[in-house]
Design goal:
316 residues; alpha/beta; Arc Repressor Mutant, subunit A; D-Maltodextrin-Binding Protein, domain 2; 3 domains; 5-stranded mixed sheet; 3-stranded antiparallel sheet; 10 helices; 22% strand
Length: 316
């Protein structure tokens, strides 16, 4: 029985995407190469691993799913081995696959990547920006080594290193009646239409923040883009509640203002999630060390907007 590493990667892509067309696009290879890899592995195993179902693409058999799990685990180990082998000279080199929650990426990623590039210039970073739910799947499937994300969406089976507490704050139009106050309350925000991020678990999270005070909010607009959200608030289409407040947001020249929300709030921890397998990589361990030092030095403290005499947070 003989497989090439490429064939195993093609099989993994076909299983994950459920499509030869999508797998070929992801791997940047011809569809015939994907098909040939599937056929070769199927012949070696001696069982039917996929069924080609019209309008549904590839459907794995039970044996195909079991083979896929073993291949995914092997590819995870192979990536670690490849990275460590390239770093055998003592200088870290190779590719680090990092996922990041899209709305937080512009604020968190550049800081981490700058320090990583200074310390290990030979390490290449492959970035994936996505939503919180997809991040879990990418980690568990071995598609990324690390995820910069919120703990509240991570299963207990995945290790997590917190870097800062992302306390909710209010984003208000300059014309808002609350814009001149030092801080606002959830009760005040509940009287105004809100603009919310239309991403998995986001609306549910903020609903829980308001419901802890017996409040409900009304949604004026939703958007998948945090930049569009800020633009809509600046144009006066509504207020919003976010978790990461960049220094540029506080300048007061964008058409909106940022205000802390008073009271004890459900506050999610933002940090880095990984797997026990990926942690064995010398590159991943080096990045975890960097993240820990950044957390200890409060490198992300300027992204958190707290009220004076901050009330105790309820960790999520």
């Amino acid at each position: 029985m003989y497989f090439t590493l490429k064939q195993l990667r093609y099989y993994d892509a076909a299983l994950r995407t459920g499509s030869i067309v999508k797998a070929s696009a992801e791997m940047n290879i011809s569809q015939s190469s994907i098909t040939a890899a599937l056929d070769a592995i199927e012949q070696s195993v001696g069982q039917e691993l996929f069924r080609r179902v019209p309008a549904k693409g590839l459907q794995p058999t039970d044996a195909g799913s079991r083979v896929g799990l073993r291949i995914a685990d092997f590819l995870d180990q192979a990536r670690i081995f490849e990275s460590d082998l390239m770093s055998i000279s003592g200088d870290l080199t190779g590719t680090l696959h990092v996922g990041c929650y899209a709305p937080s990426a512009p604020h968190v990623l550049p800081r981490l990547m700058k320090i990583l590039a200074q310390a290990y210039p030979a390490v290449r970073v492959d970035l994936v920006e996505t939503d919180l739910a997809a991040m879990v799947q990418l980690l568990q499937n071995g598609r990324i080594d690390l995820a910069l994300t919120y703990r509240r969406t991570m299963p207990d089976t995945l290790p997590f290193m917190p870097m800062f507490d992302a306390r909710p704050y209010a984003l208000l139009p300059e014309s808002s009646p609350f814009a001149q106050a030092e801080e606002v309350t959830l009760a005040q925000l509940a009287t105004k239409p809100l603009i919310m991020l239309d991403l998995p678990t986001t609306v549910e999270y903020f609903a829980a923040v308001f419901s802890q005070y017996g409040l409900k909010f009304q949604i004026a607009h939703t958007t998948k883009s945090s930049s569009v959200l800020r633009g809509l608030v600046a144009a006066g289409f509504g207020h919003s509640v976010l978790n990461i407040c960049s220094p540029s947001d506080r300048q007061g020249t964008n058409g909106y203002v940022c205000r802390p929300i008073s009271g004890a709030l459900h506050t999610p921890e933002f940090g880095v999630a990984y797997t026990n397998a990926s942690r064995r990589s010398s590159i991943v361990q080096a990045v975890l060390d960097i993240c820990e030092k950044m957390a200890q030095s409060q490198a992300f403290d300027d992204l958190v907007l707290r009220p004076a005499g901050e009330s105790k947070a309820i960790k999520w």
